[in-house]
Give the backbone structure.
Amino acid sequence: MFEKVNGKVVKVDVGMAGGVVARNGAMLFYTGDVSFAPHQVPGAQGMGGMGGLMRMAGRALAGEHERTMLAQGTGEVHYGFAGLEVHVVHMQQGATLRAEASRLLANTAGLQSSVVSVLSSGGGGGGGGGLMGALRGAATGALTGQGMFTTQLSGQGAAVLLAHGGFLELQVGGPLGSSGGHPQTPGQVVVDPQAFVAAYGNVQTELKTAMSWRDAVGRGSGEAMQLHCVGQGVVYVQASEEKL
């Protein structure tokens, strides 16, 4: 799969990986016979109708869309982006990875990909229902660096994350696979949305605020928004609040 060359570059044998999906501009160089083609960014479940309109409007307003390319063939490709730190996550069966689209460098093509909402459990953004609620929620998320939606990956494979200033790994509810046959008590970590990179394992994320969206827009305070990560797994945080 992916192998770190240094703190900012990874390499991968495309043939052995079964193809690689990476954000535009991430390919540094390659050897061998490798072809690249635009890759369709996956949509959320139920993208039709008003729900689909709200999701698309929210993603556009929050600036969450990232163009991707699919690499296939036989050869080795080196990836990196903007001199940012990289971290490889090896996916276990049954675990999921939820990552901000801007903080996902690449992943093996065999992983199942979808889009999930961090507002779906309620309490996020105070924007109300309907299309206007979605737009208001997206506006609040855009201010904090945390949008309404995250990219979710599942299956067996690997993914590469990006961070500014390095990674912090926060354990939530006990290490994966270490329960010894006993159920783990779910834990919770609350992080600054601007510092959030990804959550791996069985971790649900929800964006919350105690303020109305009008107050949040007026003050522009990132501390007014909190991302609650609940379950069992690992939360990746960058050592910076800089938006990628």
Residues 130-144 form the longest helix (15 residues).
